[in-house]
Amino acid sequence: MSIQVVKVFSIVEGDIIVEDGSSSGKICRPGDMIGALTNFRSSADPAPWQFTLDIRLSDGKKSQTVRMPIEQFASKEQAARSRDEPISFDAFETGAQTPSLRRFWLFRDAFYAAARVPRASEIDEVILRIKALHFERDAELRRLREQVANLEAVDRATSTGKVRQPLPDDVKLLVWTRDGGRCVKCGAAKDLHFDHIIPLARGGGDHAENIQLLCRACNLGKGARLT
């Protein structure tokens, strides 16, 4: 049975920001992780960051925000290791390990929580799911940058009156011969496109060195990303 993992907090310039994903509350309440964070002892070798957390207090009529520092519970070595591999909170304890803390994890710029305390056989799955969440976010940001870059290129072309010119026939012939009339990614010989390796929106040109043959599926999968 698979085990769910969610991002609970992001670390932004030393502050802990609560994620607003609708599923987070079903798996882990932010208060659960706050309790784990505030119960650690300070590390003798503090990490090179200091977390702060804004807590909003309200009695129904008035409210105020209290900024609370979080103890530097990880060593510099642990903080550096968390850049490469997710670390569970029980690794930060200097005494006996606390299995319940294995539910909470630190990886790069965020805190994650598993739906329950993972069994030993599920640790690898939790680590993979945490990494997947991180890299999915990176991929989303890359796609967003590409969409904006393409929209900006369209806007520039529209405002300057520049129209994209078709590839010269000699370039098409050279690329077709060089690539053997097949997709350079999967080898397909049907529904082929002449693709710019460096997109025009990023300064690529129409010379043969910047053109490759891709089938429709590989071209759509690539989008505007560099290969």
Commentary on this structure:
The chain is of the alpha+beta class. The protein has two domains: 5-140, no CATH class; 169-222, 3-Layer(aba) Sandwich (His-Me finger endonuclease fold). The chain is 33% helix and 22% strand. The strands form three sheets. The protein has a five-stranded antiparallel sheet with strand order 2-1-7-6-5. It has a two-stranded antiparallel sheet with strand order 3-4. A two-stranded antiparallel sheet has the order 8-9. A hairpin with a 2-residue loop joins β6 and β7 (110-114). The model has no long low-confidence stretch (mean pLDDT 79).
* Spatial gap, N to C terminus: 36 Å
Shape call: elongated
Poorly predicted regions:
none
Structure annotation, total helices: 6
Work out the strand percent.
15-25%
Class by helix and strand content?
Answer: alpha+beta
Largest sheet features: 5 strands, antiparallel
- Helical content class: 25-40%
Q: What integer is the average pLDDT?
A: 79
Q: Going across the biggest sheet, name each strand in turn.
A: 2-1-7-6-5
- Round the Cα radius of gyration to an integer and report it: 25 Å
Strand tally: 9
Q: How many structural domains does the protein architecture include? A: 2
Sketch the topology as an H/E string, one letter per element: EEHHEEHEEEHHEEH
